[in-house]
TrEMBL record:
This is Phospholipase/carboxylesterase. Keywords: Hydrolase. InterPro entries: AB_hydrolase_fold (IPR029058), LYPA1-2/EST-like (IPR050565), PLipase/COase/thioEstase (IPR003140). It comes from the Bacteria. Coiled coil: none annotated. The keyword Hydrolase applies. Residues 18-216 form the Phospholipase/carboxylesterase/thioesterase domain. GO terms for molecular function: hydrolase activity.
């Protein structure tokens, strides 16, 4: 069932806990919708309250995006970073709205993003580290153009990242993803990085690995 009561549309799987449930917010990739990652929900721990969000920009003929990706002869493929920054703010606001609307544990909030949703998960966590605890970043990379300039002034001690990528990814080059771990290490942020023999997608063993990682942290 699609919920429209907050600033972004979303689908929800309730927790089996009556109160203080850990929260998992899912952010899909470019051209997809809230049902994509939500297919994982039934296989994830029952104590999680799971909210899968629809990105705000409708695409034609179907699908949604968090920000535009433009193609032209001069620039090649490029992202609309201003739109991406606006979506970072929108997601940050949405986290607060969900925390206020549902009986959740505000100290156990996880973002799970794929591709464009993963890029924004990095940016939300590195901009607002006080709002989240765990980040599962699948098939994405860190876009430094949408991060704050004063990263070294933030306290990132509560953050923990699980990052993964397909080593045959034809959409986001694996080399981009491989820069993630050194970047996070440079900020002294807890993280793990894995690669799997797939393209731009989530292999079954990738799912099982991040599920076990998450179970230990909620």
């Amino acid at each position: 069932m699609l919920h429209t009561s907050l600033s972004l549309d979303y689908v929800l799987r309730p927790s089996n806990l009556k109160e203080n449930a850990p929260l998992l917010i899912m952010l899909h990739g470019y051209g997809s919708d809230e049902n994509d990652l939500f297919s994982f929900a039934n296989e994830l721990p029952e104590e999680l309250l799971i909210v899968s969000v629809r990105a705000p920009y409708k695409m034609q003929p179907f699908g949604n995006a968090w920000y535009a990706i433009n193609f032209d002869a001069e620039k090649g493929k490029w992202s609309d970073n201003e739109q991406a920054k606006q979506s970072v703010e929108l997601i940050a606001k949405f986290i607060d709205e969900v925390a206020n609307a549902y009986n959740i544990n505000k100290d156990s909030i996880t973002l799970l993003g794929f591709s464009q949703g993963s890029i924004l998960s990095y940016a939300v966590a590195l901009t607002y580290p006080e709002k989240v605890k765990n980040i599962i970043a699948l098939s994405g990379y860190i876009n430094q153009d949408i991060l704050p300039k004063n990263l070294n002034e933030h306290d990132y001690s509560n953050l923990d990242f699980y990052c993964s990528h397909g080593n045959a990814d034809q959409v986001i080059p694996p080399d981009w993803a491989r820069q993630t771990q050194p970047f996070l290490n440079g900020l002294h942020i807890k993280n793990t990085y894995s690669e799997f023999p797939v393209g731009h997608g989530v292999a079954p063993q990738n799912f099982y690995e991040f599920r076990e990682w998450l179970k230990k942290r909620i």
